[in-house]
């Protein structure tokens, strides 16, 4: 069992190290990956996305290793946009970059994204999970979304993400 003192020390370390943290979020299919790739290409930035780290957030250890190397830590987690308040609490000094793309392009990308081994597109595979995540920040989002077409659902996901950003 981890002692309370150790947990407090970890929280303090994350807070201090968050000065060197860039959090990238926004609606899915908005260009967060492109931004991460551009920043990660810089010699003083070390980036990771959800495919590399799952749904974990950056640990104090990870950020400290980057700091010792002279690198900023860049973390892309668009699925966490609904939890932006929690992210701001855990990493109070982090730079948050919220990517916004034209909603028509976002929904079009959601409809078109289909890989060979998938039987469905992004909307069919991930929209329900995304709505559940967004309902943490928008409890009213839970109402009536199951009756929407896939295109309408994609548009609602985009709109809810933009509303969270404005908070």
Give a structural overview.
The chain is α/β, with parallel strands linked by helices and 167 residues long. 51% of the residues lie in helices and 12% in strands. It contains 8 helices and 4 strands. Strands 2-3-1-4 form a 4-stranded parallel sheet. The longest helix has 17 residues, at 150-166. The model has no long low-confidence stretch (mean pLDDT 84).
Write out key terms for the chains shown:
12% strand, single chain, alpha/beta, 4 strands, four-stranded parallel beta sheet, 167 residues
Tell me the layout of helices and strands.
Elements: H1 4-17, E1 21-26, H2 32-40, E2 45-48, H3 50-53, H4 60-68, E3 72-76, H5 84-90, E4 95-99, H6 103-112, H7 122-137, H8 150-166
Parallel strand pairs: 1-3, 1-4, 2-3
Helix pairs in contact: 1-4, 6-8, 7-8
Large-scale geometry:
globular
**Nearest-angstrom radius of gyration?**
17 Å
Helix content: 40-55%
Query: How are the strands ordered across the major sheet?
Result: 2-3-1-4
- H/E order of the elements? HEHEHHEHEHHH
Question: Structural class, from secondary structure content?
Answer: alpha/beta
The main sheet comes to: 4 strands, parallel
Percent in strands:
5-15%
The number of helical runs is 8
Q: Regions with pLDDT < 50 over 5+ consecutive residues?
A: none
Distance between the termini: 37 Å
* Averaged pLDDT: 84
